[in-house]
Write a structure and sequence with these properties.
Helix content: 40-55%
Strand order of the largest sheet: 1-3-4-2-7-8
Number of domains: 2
Distance between the termini: 72 Å
CATH topology of the largest domain: Alpha-Beta Plaits
Largest sheet: 6 strands, mixed
CATH class of the largest domain: Alpha Beta
Number of helices: 6
Structural class: alpha/beta
Strand content: 15-25%
CATH superfamily of the largest domain: Reverse transcriptase/Diguanylate cyclase domain
Radius of gyration: 21 Å
């Protein structure tokens, strides 16, 4: 009986250890190593449900002239700039919001239950905080900036990718308009389907 009990406890312990390891590996696979934010795959997995974005907004950020930071100050400084931007995102998200690094210097913030003015003001706050952030290097201080595009989700079951594409169009307008700015989509979509 004792041997069976010890064997059972050992098997339970091994099972718990394996479960913890599996959770840790899943979390690591969903996390951007440099910033600690979600990665692109994890963002798209979380937003796969058709109603996942309903009543929310998507903000896409791109760090302005980031290649020049890496070229002039080195990749270590560039990495620190990326971490600083991730910190600015973390300071401005609410419970239920999702922040992710989706590419080299591209980030996405999904705001749950957000109006266009709330999304625009959140994006502007993040942009301003980041613009004031300075990274000190041996070659001098690095000041970086970001541009953002904002799109409000429609209430008609629009998928995440469609809203992200509209936010991306706004981002391109921000870049074309001089960078270091927030631009919202031109066409506001009705929150109610037409009757």
């Amino acid at each position: 009986m004792c041997i069976a009990g010890i064997t059972g406890i050992g098997a339970l312990s091994l099972g718990l250890k394996n479960a913890r390891a599996a959770r840790r590996h899943r979390l690591e696979a969903q996390t951007d190593v440099l910033t600690g934010l979600l990665n692109r795959r994890a963002l798209f997995e979380r937003m796969a449900e058709p109603a996942a974005l309903r009543g929310g907004a998507v903000i896409i950020f791109d760090l302005d002239n980031f290649k020049a930071v890496n070229d002039r100050y080195g990749h270590a400084a560039g990495d620190e700039v990326l971490r600083r931007f991730a910190d600015a995102l973390r300071l401005n998200i609410r419970e239920g919001d999702i922040a992710a690094r989706t590419g080299g210097e591209e980030f996405v913030l999904v705001l749950r239950k957000a109006s266009l003015p709330l999304a625009a003001s959140t994006a502007e706050r993040i942009r301003a905080i980041f613009a004031e952030s300075r990274v000190d290097t041996e070659k001098g201080p690095v000041w970086a900036a970001a541009s953002a595009g904002v799109a409000l989700a429609t209430d008609d079951g629009e998928n995440f990718e469609a809203a992200l594409n509209r936010a991306d169009v706004s981002l391109y307008r921000a870049k074309a308009g001089g960078r270091n700015r927030v631009v919202t989509e031109l066409k506001l979509h009705s929150l109610r389907p037409a009757m």
